[in-house]
Amino acid sequence: MRQVKIGSMRIDLVSEIPALAFDKSWLFANVTDAVIAENRSWLDHRYIEPETGRFILSHHSYLVRTPRWTAIVDTCCGNHKKRPRVPMWNDLNQPYLDNMQALGVAPQEVDFVMCTHLHVDHVGWNTRLLDGRWVPTFSNARYLMGREEYRHFEAAHNAAPKSPVNHGSFEDSVLPVVAAGLAELVETDHRLFDDREAALRFAPAPGHTAGNMQIHLDGGQDHAVMSGDVIHHPIQCAAPWLSNAADVDPAAAVATRMALLEQLADTPSYLLTGHFPAPTAGRVIRHGGAYRFRFED
């Protein structure tokens, strides 16, 4: 992804896993071969495997920089974490921090970690393994997490402390941040900055998780939405009714997705999702009675 500029904000992609293929029915239980065939003309081999029809996703974060502060949005899967139920995320050893360093940012220089939600593949680099302990990766940052979602997973953890809530990520990637005093629980409409050239706010995005959020960035006349898992794959622009298996409220997730697509359609606003493969960034355009995604190469 080439750098996106929103007012005084510069947005870069920090890659963890550039391309990972998921079984189509595992990702979207209600997908059909007909829907895939209808969209193959604009979704090439970068997004759908030609031989298998599997959907290709990226795992990445967004690095947001201004002259005053640096933030990282969603922190992927993380290294050395035991995820036996999902082998593709298990015990990774990826050069994520090297990729961040290549963009000119060291972990200690990050001021804010912003979590659209707390699923296993969005919080992993919140912590890293040091001398056998999970410690915050971004030691000088405030970690902003949704209060509603945190309380939901906290209750599940307290009810069954030995059960691996969120594949174990709540224990190894969230609770150590809380224990270190770096977590800030926020409401789903929390505003972090209101500067004319760098306004940043959360917005409710119900459906994928309890208390799911998206992030809006405004600067001057520019606007972008970091949608987290409101949309997983570009085929959902053409078929917004495709529901991800992890959605806790599929109907609400569809409504949230439809509302976002309608808001952005045929506007200059960027859509920056949590999993679109390279070139990742782009804009929503209308196509017939639905939408498509135009990647910005």
Task: Briefly characterize the structure.
By secondary structure, this protein is α/β, with parallel strands linked by helices. Helix content is 21%, strand content 32%. The strands form 4 sheets. The chain has a 7-stranded mixed beta sheet. Strands 10-11-12-13-14 form a 5-stranded mixed beta sheet, with no helix packed on it.
Care to describe what's here?
The chain has helices at 24-27, 33-39, 96-102, 147-159, 169-179, 235-238, 250-264, and strands spanning 4-6, 9-22, 55-65, 70-73, 112-114, 127-130, 133-136, 142-146, 183-186, 191-195, 198-204, 213-219, 222-228, 270-273, 282-287, 290-295. By secondary structure, it is of the alpha/beta class. The strands form four sheets. A seven-stranded mixed beta sheet has the order 1-2-3-4-5-8-9. Strands 10-11-12-13-14 form a five-stranded mixed beta sheet, with no helix packed on it. Strands 6-7 form a two-stranded antiparallel ribbon. It is globular.
